[in-house]
Amino acid sequence: MKKYNITARRKQKKYRYPGKASQVFDNLANDPVIKDILGFNIIFSDIFEFRLADGCRLRGCFAILKQTRQVLSMVFDYFMKAELAAATIQRIDFCNYDSDTIWHSDQGKQYGARETVYQLVKKGFIASMSRAGTPTDNPFAKRFVGTFKHSVVRKQKYYSLGEFLKQAEKWINFYNNRRPHESLGQLSPNEYAKKNNYKTVPYLSNLTV
Predict the structure, then answer these.
(1) SS3 58
(2) At the topology level of CATH, where does 32-195 sit?
(3) What is the pLDDT of residues 178-196, one digit of tens each?
(4) Distances, alpha carbon 151 to alpha carbons 64, 144, 147, 171, 179, in Å
């Protein structure tokens, strides 16, 4: 190879999942037995990040109900700590007494932290986690991240946190109350909830830790 001045191609490093939680739970949301039990609600959650115009990183955490696609809670902070996930859980104003609720996330450290698990127990939620490095185990959350980034994050440049939060609040409530979903028969999440005797999500306004 030296004779012909050819450089060997470097072998790419194998992907390693960086955020495994110290406390990991079974993947219940994708269990075929659980899926067939209509008495279970499933809430999907994820944490994502993006940058404001000044370069500051902002993290967001949300909770979305699988059955209705309602955004139950959404919180933003500059830091990716357990408080972000815990605050998201704490602010969920949702309870369906006729069924148990599974809380499904990836294996990020924030989701396995003591403070987060405490909030799950307090709400009566059953913890569930995707397999490590398997985003397809959390499809509803991943799709919502893409929708939010397309509709809010990339829509314009935000020069302050307040400017971003104002637009995020406006869009999230539009999403719950007016945005039609093909999978819901062209109804918005709250309209679909009403039709199927679920609680509607009230106006979401407190979006920071």
Answers:
(1) strand
(2) Nucleotidyltransferase; domain 5 (3.30.420)
(3) 999 999 999 999 999 999 9
(4) 17, 10, 6, 8, 12
